[in-house]
Amino acid sequence: MTIPQDPVLCIDLHCHSTASDGALTPTELVNRAAGQKVTHLALTDHDTVGGLAEAQSAAAENSMVLIPGVELSCLWRSHTIHIVGLDFDLDDAGFREALDRQKSNRWARAGMIAERLARLAIPDLLERATAEAGGDVPGRPHFARVMVEAGVVKNAAQAFKRYLGAGKAGDVKAYWPELQEVVQWVNSAGGIAVLAHPRKYKLTATKLRELTADFRRAEGRAIEVSTSGQSSGDLGFLTELCMREKLLASQGSDFHFPGAPWCELGRIMKMPDGLEPVWHHFRQVPGIDAPG
Ligand code: MN
Ligand code: MN
Ligand code: MN
Question: How many domains, the chain?
Answer without folding.
Answer: 2
